[in-house]
Amino acid sequence: MRGFVMRVITHVKxxxxxxxxxxxxxxxxxxxxxxxxxxxxxxxxxxxHVVSMTAKGFCAQFxxxxxxxxxxxxxxxxxxxxxxxxxxxxxxxxxxxNPIAFGIVQLNDRDGDYCVVTYGWPDIYLAGxxxxxxxxxxxxxxxxxxxxxxxxxxxxxxxxx
Length: 161
Description:
The chain has 161 residues and is of the alpha+beta class. It is 28% helix and 24% strand. The longest helix has 21 residues, at 47-67.
Protein backbone atom coordinates (compact mmCIF):
# COMPACT_ATOMS: atom_id res chain seq x y z
CA MET A 1 0.00 0.00 0.00
CA ARG A 2 1.50 3.29 -1.07
CA GLY A 3 2.12 5.88 1.64
CA PHE A 4 1.45 3.44 4.48
CA VAL A 5 4.13 3.20 7.14
CA MET A 6 3.91 0.46 9.72
CA ARG A 7 5.96 0.93 12.84
CA VAL A 8 6.86 -2.23 14.71
CA ILE A 9 6.97 -1.62 18.44
CA THR A 10 9.32 -3.87 20.35
CA HIS A 11 9.34 -3.53 24.09
CA VAL A 12 12.31 -4.73 26.09
CA LYS A 13 11.87 -6.73 29.29
CA UNK A 14 13.84 -5.10 32.10
CA UNK A 15 15.22 -6.64 35.28
CA UNK A 16 15.38 -5.69 38.93
CA UNK A 17 16.51 -7.83 41.86
CA UNK A 18 14.53 -9.04 44.91
CA UNK A 19 16.83 -6.87 47.05
CA UNK A 20 15.94 -3.83 44.93
CA UNK A 21 12.24 -4.65 45.30
CA UNK A 22 12.52 -4.82 49.09
CA UNK A 23 14.49 -1.58 49.17
CA UNK A 24 11.87 0.07 46.92
CA UNK A 25 9.10 -1.04 49.27
CA UNK A 26 10.91 0.33 52.33
CA UNK A 27 11.61 3.61 50.54
CA UNK A 28 7.95 3.93 49.52
CA UNK A 29 6.83 3.29 53.11
CA UNK A 30 9.29 5.90 54.36
CA UNK A 31 7.94 8.50 51.94
CA UNK A 32 4.38 7.65 52.94
CA UNK A 33 5.15 8.05 56.66
CA UNK A 34 6.78 11.43 56.12
CA UNK A 35 3.42 12.65 54.90
CA UNK A 36 4.81 15.59 52.98
CA UNK A 37 5.24 15.85 49.23
CA UNK A 38 4.09 12.33 48.46
CA UNK A 39 4.89 11.44 44.86
CA UNK A 40 1.29 10.33 44.27
CA UNK A 41 -1.61 12.29 45.71
CA UNK A 42 -5.17 11.15 45.36
CA UNK A 43 -8.30 11.25 47.47
CA UNK A 44 -9.58 7.95 46.08
CA UNK A 45 -6.47 5.79 46.66
CA UNK A 46 -5.61 4.08 49.93
CA UNK A 47 -2.22 4.61 51.57
CA UNK A 48 -1.39 0.97 50.82
CA HIS A 49 -2.13 1.45 47.13
CA VAL A 50 0.00 4.60 46.97
CA VAL A 51 2.89 2.76 48.70
CA SER A 52 2.54 -0.11 46.21
CA MET A 53 2.52 2.25 43.20
CA THR A 54 5.52 4.17 44.54
CA ALA A 55 7.50 0.97 45.19
CA LYS A 56 6.80 -0.27 41.66
CA GLY A 57 8.01 3.08 40.31
CA PHE A 58 11.27 2.70 42.24
CA CYS A 59 11.66 -0.85 40.85
CA ALA A 60 11.23 0.60 37.36
CA GLN A 61 13.97 3.13 38.12
CA PHE A 62 16.31 0.32 39.23
CA UNK A 63 15.47 -1.64 36.07
CA UNK A 64 16.06 1.32 33.73
CA UNK A 65 19.35 2.15 35.48
CA UNK A 66 20.47 -1.46 34.98
CA UNK A 67 19.44 -1.29 31.30
CA UNK A 68 21.51 1.90 30.92
CA UNK A 69 24.43 0.12 32.66
CA UNK A 70 24.53 2.62 35.50
CA UNK A 71 26.35 0.94 38.37
CA UNK A 72 25.39 1.29 42.05
CA UNK A 73 22.19 3.18 41.27
CA UNK A 74 20.10 4.33 44.24
CA UNK A 75 16.78 6.17 43.90
CA UNK A 76 16.61 9.65 45.35
CA UNK A 77 14.11 10.94 47.89
CA UNK A 78 12.92 14.52 48.33
CA UNK A 79 14.49 15.78 45.10
CA UNK A 80 11.29 15.68 43.01
CA UNK A 81 11.85 18.19 40.21
CA UNK A 82 15.25 19.38 41.47
CA UNK A 83 17.04 16.32 40.07
CA UNK A 84 16.21 13.56 37.58
CA UNK A 85 15.24 10.07 38.70
CA UNK A 86 18.41 8.77 37.06
CA UNK A 87 21.38 11.06 36.43
CA UNK A 88 22.13 12.81 34.21
CA UNK A 89 18.67 13.41 32.66
CA UNK A 90 16.21 10.49 32.85
CA UNK A 91 12.72 10.76 34.35
CA UNK A 92 11.09 7.33 34.66
CA UNK A 93 7.32 6.97 34.30
CA UNK A 94 5.86 3.61 35.22
CA UNK A 95 2.41 2.06 34.97
CA UNK A 96 1.59 -1.44 36.08
CA UNK A 97 -1.07 -1.62 33.35
CA ASN A 98 -0.26 -3.85 30.41
CA PRO A 99 -0.52 -2.89 27.64
CA ILE A 100 0.09 0.76 28.32
CA ALA A 101 -1.57 3.31 26.04
CA PHE A 102 0.47 6.42 26.79
CA GLY A 103 3.32 7.91 28.79
CA ILE A 104 2.98 10.94 31.00
CA VAL A 105 5.05 14.11 30.88
CA GLN A 106 4.27 16.40 33.81
CA LEU A 107 4.02 20.17 33.40
CA ASN A 108 6.89 20.66 35.84
CA ASP A 109 9.27 18.11 34.24
CA ARG A 110 12.52 19.78 33.22
CA ASP A 111 12.74 20.53 29.48
CA GLY A 112 16.30 19.15 29.23
CA ASP A 113 15.34 15.69 30.53
CA TYR A 114 14.15 12.54 28.78
CA CYS A 115 10.95 10.79 29.84
CA VAL A 116 11.48 7.01 29.91
CA VAL A 117 8.23 5.02 29.92
CA THR A 118 7.95 1.55 31.50
CA TYR A 119 4.98 -0.68 32.23
CA GLY A 120 3.92 -4.01 33.71
CA TRP A 121 4.12 -5.81 37.02
CA PRO A 122 5.85 -7.94 38.23
CA ASP A 123 7.58 -8.07 34.84
CA ILE A 124 8.62 -4.57 33.79
CA TYR A 125 8.98 -3.57 30.14
CA LEU A 126 10.61 -0.58 28.52
CA ALA A 127 8.17 1.06 26.11
CA GLY A 128 10.52 3.83 24.93
CA UNK A 129 11.45 7.42 25.64
CA UNK A 130 11.03 10.98 24.40
CA UNK A 131 12.66 14.31 25.21
CA UNK A 132 10.46 16.19 27.67
CA UNK A 133 10.61 19.41 25.66
CA UNK A 134 9.44 17.62 22.51
CA UNK A 135 6.54 15.99 24.37
CA UNK A 136 5.47 19.33 25.81
CA UNK A 137 5.62 20.90 22.34
CA UNK A 138 3.96 18.09 20.40
CA UNK A 139 1.19 17.02 22.81
CA UNK A 140 -1.39 19.29 24.38
CA UNK A 141 -1.50 19.37 28.19
CA UNK A 142 -4.81 18.00 29.44
CA UNK A 143 -6.47 17.96 32.84
CA UNK A 144 -7.27 14.44 33.99
CA UNK A 145 -9.71 13.51 36.71
CA UNK A 146 -9.91 17.14 37.80
CA UNK A 147 -6.59 16.95 39.68
CA UNK A 148 -3.64 16.42 37.33
CA UNK A 149 -2.62 18.24 34.19
CA UNK A 150 -0.08 16.49 31.99
CA UNK A 151 0.92 15.71 28.42
CA UNK A 152 -0.18 12.25 27.21
CA UNK A 153 2.35 10.71 24.82
CA UNK A 154 0.98 7.72 22.85
CA UNK A 155 3.25 4.69 23.29
CA UNK A 156 3.52 4.30 19.51
CA UNK A 157 5.16 7.74 19.35
CA UNK A 158 7.90 6.93 21.87
CA UNK A 159 11.44 6.41 20.59
CA UNK A 160 13.12 3.03 21.07
CA UNK A 161 16.14 2.96 23.37
